[in-house]
Design a protein that fits this description.
- The protein has two helices and 45 strands.
- The strands form nine sheets. Strands 2, 4, 5, 8, 11 and 13 form a six-stranded antiparallel sheet that branches. Strands 3, 6, 7, 9, 10 and 12 form a six-stranded antiparallel sheet that branches.
- Strand 41 (575-590) and strand 42 (596-600) form a beta hairpin.
- The model is unreliable at 1-19 and 556-560 (pLDDT under 50).
C-alpha cells in the first residue's frame, strides 16, 4: 500500500455562516467576475484585448479541482484590480480578512497588494480612493504553493462609516501569475482551532484507499470530533498527538475530513477533500480472451485510457490496411455463423481520440488480419481522426475486432456503432491488378463502379490513413505517348487515382492523386505499352465513377481530327478561349470536387468563357463537339 501525505492543511471550514461572516467567495458560481465583484484597470494599465489581460476564473493550481480567481501577467504594463462587493461591517466585532493565494514565478513578481477602502465609489479608477494596505502577498519562499493568508484585522476609520471594499491589486510587466481563492471576511474568532493533517493510504490492488488523520493540537477544545463525507462513523480525539485511520473507501471517491471543535463551530477545521490516484480498473474486455460479443445494431461505448495492449504481435511487421498493434486496445467478437453473411460497418465517429480498428480471424497468438480502418473524414467529418469502415463477414467465421488508437499514446473515450447489410455480391471482376479491365484512350467518358469492392490491405504512398476499396484498369499508350486521365463523380463521393507501369507484382508508380476527383497528364509514355490504373475510395464512399482517357496530342488543331480544338491561355486569369473546326456544342467546367460551376452552349466555332468569378485552383473543362466529349485541365490564377 502506498501513503501520500497532503501538505495542505486547511485551517477553517468556510461553509459555516453562524459566526458573523460578511463575505465568503470561492469563485465557483460559474460567472466571472462573481456578482458584485469588479475587474478594474488602474491608470498604468495598457489593455491588449486578450484574456491574459484581465482577471479570470481557472482550475489551474487550485487547492482542489475547483475554480480560483487568476491573473496572468504575460503581457506588458498591467495594473489590474479585483475588487469585492461593498461589505457592510455595521455591527461587526473585530472584522478580519483571510484568503488563500498562490504566486507562480514569484521571483519576477511586482506589486501583489491586498487593501481595503471606505471611500471607493464602486467603479472607475481605484487610485482616486484611499486604500489601506493589509498585506503584500509576494514571498519568494512560497513559490507556486497554496498559502493561507491572514487573519488581517480590518479597522474602519472612526466616523466615516462601516462599509468597505477589499481589493487585490496587481502591477507588473510580463512577470508572474497570481491565483486567489476562498476569500473570507468575518468577525475575529474567540476560539482556537485544532491542528491536523491527512495522509492518503492507497490499496490500488483492491481498488480502495484509507485516510490517516493526525491531530497534533486540540486548540482550546477539550475534544475534537473527526467527521467525514465518506459515510464512516465519527471518531473522537481527546489527547494529542493522535492518528486515526478512517475507511476504506472505494477508489475514485472524494472524501472530505473535518476536525470539529466541541463547543464552537466557527473553529471547525476542514482538512480538504482527499481522493486516491489509483489507476481505474482495466475494461472488462481488455484482453482478447474476454472479447465482448456484439451483434448487428450494437451501440457500445467505453474507454481505452485504462486499457492495456493485448495481442501486440497480431499484425504483420509491415502494417496492412493502414493499422498496426501498438496502442492500448479493447476487444469485441462478431459471430457471423449466428448473425449470417453480411457487410458489417464499424463506426467510431463520435469518439474523442485518434482511433484505429483492426479486424481478425483465428485464435490468440495466431490471428489473421482481414480488415482495418483508420481516419474516415467522409463519414466522421472533415479533419476528423476517427475510424469507420466495412468488412465482409462470410457467415461462418467469428471475427475479432480490436479498438485502439493510431499511435501508442492515443487513448480516450470511444463510441462504437455496428450496422449490417446483406453481403454485397461484387459485380466487379477487376479488383486486383491481374484482372484489370481494359479502357480505350479515345476521349470517351465511361462509367465504372466500385460499389462492392473489397478493401485492399496495401496502402498507397499518397493515402496512408484510409481504407483502399479499389478497382483496376489498363490502357495502351497511343503513338504520341501523351494521355490525359480525368475522373468525375457519379454516385461515389470520392474518386482517387494511381497510375503504374510494369507488370503485376512488379509495378512502378508514376502518379498518385488522393483528391476527391483527379486529373493526370502523362507524357513520354512508350507507344503501345500497357499501363495500369487503380481507382479507389475508402470503403464507405463507393459508387459510380466517370473516367475519361484522351490522347493529349489530339487537343491540337490538326486537319486529320475534325473534332480537334485548341484552348488558351492556360493558366487563365480572366477568359478562357476555345476554338474548333466544328461548332462547340456544350462546355462544362467542374471544380476538384466534381461540382459543375460553369456551363455554356455556344454552338459556335469559337467561344470565350468568363472565369473571373471562379476561385484560384484547378478545374476540369469538358468540351462537346459533334457529340464527342473531351476533358482538359485548366489552372485558374
Amino acid at each position: 500500500m502506498k501513503k501520500i501525505t497532503f501538505v495542505m492543511t486547511f485551517i477553517l471550514l468556510w461553509s459555516f455562516n453562524s459566526y458573523g461572516q460578511f463575505i465568503d467567495e470561492d469563485f465557483e458560481s460559474g460567472t466571472f467576475p462573481p456578482a458584485g465583484w469588479i475587474d478594474e484597470a488602474g491608470p498604468a494599465h495598457v489593455p491588449n484585448g486578450t484574456a491574459d489581460n484581465d482577471w479570470a476564473a481557472t482550475t489551474a493550481r487550485s487547492n482542489s479541482p475547483t475554480n480560483s480567481a487568476f491573473f496572468n501577467d504575460f503581457t506588458v504594463n498591467n495594473d489590474k484590480w479585483l475588487i469585492s462587493p461593498l461589505i457592510d461591517l455595521s455591527g461587526a466585532v473585530n472584522p478580519e480578512l483571510l484568503y488563500w493565494d498562490n504566486v507562480n514565478f514569484a521571483e519576477f513578481a511586482g506589486t501583489h497588494d491586498v487593501l481595503w477602502s471606505e471611500d471607493y465609489s464602486g467603479s472607475g479608477d481605484p487610485t482616486l480612493a484611499t486604500w489601506t494596505s493589509l498585506y503584500n502577498t509576494v514571498v519568494e519562499a512560497d513559490e507556486d504553493t497554496w498559502m493561507q493568508r491572514g487573519p488581517f484585522a480590518i479597522s474602519p476609520i472612526v466616523g466615516t462609516g462601516d462599509e468597505v471594499y477589499i481589493a487585490f491589486h496587481y502591477v507588473g510587466n510580463n512577470d508572474a501569475e497570481w491565483f486567489i481563492d476562498d476569500v473570507l471576511v468575518r468577525n475575529a474568532l474567540t476560539c482556537t482551532p485544532a491542528i491536523g493533517s491527512v495522509t492518503l493510504v492507497e490499496d490500488c490492488g483492491n481498488q480502495e484507499f484509507s485516510i490517516e488523520v493526525e491531530v497534533t493540537s486540540l486548540g482550546d477544545s477539550g475534544t475534537v470530533t473527526i467527521s467525514n463525507t465518506g459515510g464512516e462513523a465519527d471518531e473522537t480525539v481527546n489527547s494529542v498527538p493522535t492518528t486515526v485511520t478512517i475507511g476504506p473507501f472505494t477508489t475514485g471517491t472524494s472524501v472530505g475530513v473535518t476536525l470539529e471543535h466541541d463547543s464552537n463551530a466557527a473553529c471547525n477545521v476542514f482538512l480538504g477533500n482527499t481522493v486516491d490516484s489509483c489507476p481505474p480498473p482495466t475494461p472488462a474486455n481488455d484482453d482478447f480472451a474476454d472479447a465482448q460479443a456484439i451483434v448487428c445494431g450494437s451501440m457500445m461505448s467505453g474507454e481505452t485510457d485504462s486499457a492495456t495492449l493485448d495481442e501486440a504481435s497480431a499484425n504483420p511487421t509491415t502494417a496492412a490496411y493502414g493499422v498496426d498493434s501498438d496502442a492500448p486496445n479493447v476487444w469485441f467478437s462478431y459471430d457471423s455463423a449466428t448473425e449470417g453473411a453480411a457487410d458489417v460497418t464499424i463506426s467510431l465517429c463520435g469518439s474523442n481520440y485518434d482511433t484505429s480498428v483492426a479486424v481478425y480471424t483465428g485464435t490468440s497468438g495466431s490471428l489473421t488480419l482481414v480488415a482495418g480502418f483508420e481516419d474516415n473524414e467522409a463519414a466522421c467529418g472533415v479533419f476528423s481522426v476517427q475510424s469507420e469502415g466495412t468488412f465482409s463477414a462470410n457467415g461462418t467465421d467469428t471475427y475479432y475486432i480490436s479498438v485502439e488508437g493510431y499511435s501508442a499514446f492515443d487513448t480516450g473515450n470511444y463510441v462504437m456503432n455496428v450496422t449490417c447489410v446483406p453481403l454485397c455480391t461484387a459485380p466487379q471482376t477487376n479488383m486486383d491488378c491481374a484482372s484489370a479491365t481494359a479502357l480505350s484512350v479515345d476521349g470517351m467518358t465511361t462509367t465504372q463502379d466500385n460499389t462492392c469492392a473489397t478493401v485492399n490491405p496495401t496502402q498507397l504512398n499518397c493515402d496512408l490513413y484510409h481504407s483502399i476499396a479499389d478497382v483496376w484498369y489498363t490502357f495502351d499508350a497511343p503513338a504520341s505517348g501523351q494521355v490525359n486521365i480525368v475522373t468525375a463523380l457519379g454516385t461515389a463521393s470520392a474518386a482517387h487515382i494511381a497510375i503504374y507501369e510494369g507488370t503485376c507484382g512488379a509495378l512502378v508508380e508514376l502518379e498518385c492523386e488522393d483528391d476527391a476527383t483527379s486529373s493526370v497528364s502523362l507524357t513520354d509514355l512508350n507507344a503501345a505499352e500497357t499501363y495500369f490504373i487503380q481507382l479507389w475510395n475508402n470503403g464507405t464512399e463507393e459508387g459510380t465513377i466517370n473516367i475519361t482517357l484522351s490522347d493529349a496530342s489530339l487537343s491540337l488543331n490538326t486537319i486529320e481530327n475534325e473534332n480537334a480544338f485548341t484552348y488558351f491561355p492556360n493558366p487563365v486569369k480572366n477568359e478562357l478561349t476555345l476554338k474548333a473546326q466544328n461548332s462547340i456544342q456544350n462546355v462544362s467546367v467542374f471544380n476538384m470536387l466534381g461540382q459543375e460551376v460553369l456551363r455554356a452552349k455556344p454552338n459556335t466555332l469559337e467561344t470565350n468563357l468568363n472565369m473571373n468569378d471562379l476561385s484560384q485552383g484547378a478545374y476540369f473543362v469538358q468540351v462537346t463537339i459533334n457529340n464527342v466529349t473531351e476533358t482538359v485541365r485548366i489552372l485558374k490564377q
